[in-house]
Structure of Neprosin PEP catalytic domain-containing protein:
Amino acid sequence: MATFNNFVLQLMLTITLILLAEAAKDRRAIPSEEEQKELERQLKAINKSAIKSFKTEQGEIYDCIDIHKQLAFDHHLLKDHNIQMKPTSVPKWITSKNISQKVDPLQLLPRGISCPDGTVIVKRTTMQDLLNVQHLKSIGFNSYRHGHTEGNNIDLTGHHFATVDYKYSTVSGVKGNINLWDLQVSQDQVSLATMAIAGGPIENLASISVGWMVNPLLYQDHVHLYTYWTADGYQKTGCYDIRCPGFVQVSKRIPLGVLLKPVSIYNGTQYQMELSLHQDRATGDWWFIFGGVNVGYWPKSLFIASGLAKGTDKASWGGQVYSPLTKKSPFMGSGHFPNEGFGKAAFINGIEIIDGKGEALIPQIYTIKTHKSSPNCYKAKFIHDDDDPWIRAVFYGGPGGCTGQLLSEESQGLKNLDKL
Ligand SMILES: *[C@@H]1O[C@H](CO)[C@@H](O)[C@H](O)[C@H]1NC(C)=O
Ligand SMILES: *[C@@H]1O[C@H](CO)[C@@H](O)[C@H](O)[C@H]1NC(C)=O
Ligand SMILES: *[C@@H]1O[C@H](CO)[C@@H](O)[C@H](O)[C@H]1NC(C)=O
């Protein structure tokens, strides 16, 4: 009888979760008149007048914006900001051999798109983009949450993580070569590879993430470069790419949100993008560098001291997916488990951090924790070899299909509810 009651309870909760997901969808479909007005106001503010504009075959619009008139400077904390054209110092990363091809960030845009000196390149945001971002937020898809949700009431329904997390001493920079894959996901789903830093109190964690994302809501189809930041757990501050003031773009060649190519082939050529985030020792700004090219930075003044203004102590590398419970969860990484190894499983290699003294170091195994929220569907494996710095990597991913296992998978959480 107890088992039967348990089953009924689980079923009811499942139905409730599905209804909640449906309700979230409805909210997206019909924004209230007030919300609509607010979004129009936001869009008008985001859309800076362009010196030149380009439209790609995919229908994406790129604008060349006067570097001093970019959206970042609408931020109240950046009114008197002195723009930095490049970092005052770049950390000396430990060089390691490359066993796969690097994506050249300067070859990403279609030929013929070129912005004049004194401008930066920005992907045009549309009303639909803003509506979609709101929807993502409503389903809890935001920020760096995974390793730090214990004892929190954060709803992670439908989210799955497979990462390696560093939490040991001060971090003032992170680097990783993120292996690139293109995947199929359905309209409401997300699959991403990320390198992230986070700091501050758990209720309003400051974080910056960079990597690739497949998500029709934010990026239509295929795999795109993504960045995300928040100074307060995504309550009042932060956004993806340049959908809100904050990130100061300096590159006129590499727009945030750009389509990434070429992608890796299963059991064939592997491509990776070399990304780093580091805090400039002189200014405290967090620089984002892609394949040796300065893309831009998040100014120190966006963050409080316990957030990211004075370094941080949390970093992570790996994959994340989201799916509404009505669908099977998508591929993560290449869609294959880590044990298949190089060429088949997705990886992030060349994992390094910059410590509090500004020195590059390779995280020791005892400073790394592997985090797998749904190990039946997605796994992560940290590999290390003291003789070969290349071999500081996370292999991560899996074929998904988790949502179909909701009843068994979530049963632990439901048992806890049972006790209430
Ligand atoms: C955004 O600005 C461009 C010119 O830079 C203009 O053509 C377009 O209509 C504007 N869109 C909105 C929604 O304001
Ligand atoms: C490693 O990188 C160098 C320079 O970027 C390139 O010439 C070489 O082909 C790469 N090797 C492999 C195995 O990808
Ligand atoms: C991978 O490629 C090798 C050499 O090209 C081939 O012999 C092997 O059968 C392939 N394996 C799979 C699983 O496709």
